[in-house]
Known about the structure:
By secondary structure, the chain is an alpha/beta fold. The chain has helices at 50-57, 79-82, 101-111, 116-129, 145-157, 175-190, 203-209, 227-234, 249-257, 279-292, 307-315, 319-325, and strands spanning 8-17, 24-34, 39-43, 65-70, 73-74, 86-89, 163-167, 195-200, 212-217, 220-225, 237-243, 262-268, 271-276, 297-303, 330-331. Strand 1 and strand 2 (24-34) form a beta hairpin. The longest helix has 16 residues, at 175-190. The N and C termini lie far apart (48 Å).
Amino acid sequence: MSTPELAVEAVDLGKTYGKGAKAVHALAALSFAVRPGIVFGLLGPNGAGKSTTVRILTTLARPDRGRATVHGIDVGRHPDRVRPLIGYVSQKPGFDPVATGCENLVLQGRVHGASARQARLRAAELLERFDLTAAGRRLAGSWSGGMQRKLDVAMGLMHRPRVLFLDEPTTGLDPQARQELWAEIARLARQDGLTVLLTTHYLEEADHLAAQLVIVDAGRVVAAGTPDQLKSALGGDTIRVGLVRQPDADRARVAIATVHGVGTVVAEGGALHTRVRNGAAVLPAALTALDAAGVELASVSVARPSLDDVYLHHAGRSFREADRLGTGPQVVSL
Length: 334
C-alpha cells in the first residue's frame, strides 16, 4: 500500500540570523507533517518562529538546515514548481488601497497567468463567496478591517491553490469579523478540500479551527496532535484563583503549594493556576489554606485542561506570559 502524499512536510528546519556573538536561532530542528484537506494550526506566542517557518514553506526564505516539501516537491530545490500550488496571506495587508476590490483581484489573477476574462470571472466568484460583491467597485482602502482581511484571503485564492498559508489572519479584527473569517476558513477545508496552514497566537482560534496543530516555542515543536488529544493527555483539572490584591500573589502561591495534591503553581498578574488530579477533592483544602494565609479571593474556578495548560506543561510557562514578553529568537552560545 502506498503512503498518501502529504500536503506539507517540514523536516528538521533550522534558521539562524546573523553571525558571531549576535547570531540568533529562529528555528531549531522544527518538524511536522500536514495531511491534505485540513486546517492545520501552527500555534505559538509572538517570536516563536511561526512566520519564519511560513516564509520558508512559501519559498520566501531558505532554511540553513533541513528540508521542506509541498505535495512532495522540495521547496528549496524547486520553488518555481511550488509557487503555483500555494496561496499566501501575510500578516500585513497585501491589497492596493487605491484600487477597487475587483481590480485587486483581477490584477492578482493576471499575475498568475489568467486571461482578462478568466480573472474577471474568478474575481466575481470570490467577491460573492466572501459577501463583498456590493463593495467590489469601491476603493479597498475605504473598506472595514474585516472586509479588507477577506479581500486578502480572496487574493490568495485567485489561482486556485492546493495549499493556503494564512499568517495570523485575524490579528486586529473585532470579534464579529473574526468569527466570520473563522467560518470561511473552516469552509475552505470542509467544502473545497483545500489544505489551510494557519499560524496564530490565539488559543481559541487554534482550538476552534485546527483539525491538527503543533505548538511552537523558541523555534521548536513542543507538542503536536489534535486540540482534544493534547488537552486530554494532561488529565486532571486546572484550578484558577483570582486575587483581589495582586501583591498577595507570592503569599498565595506559597499557601496553595502546601496543599496535598497540588503541583506547580504559576502566578500571572492577579491570578494563580495549578493542575491537580482531582479538582473537586483538592479545592476545599486549597481555599482553606488561602483563607488561613489572609488572601482575599476575587474568583475561583475548576476546569478541564485548556491549550494554555498544554503550553504551560510543555514549555514551562503560561502562553499568555510568553506572548506578552515574546519568546524571541535564542542567542547562540559561543
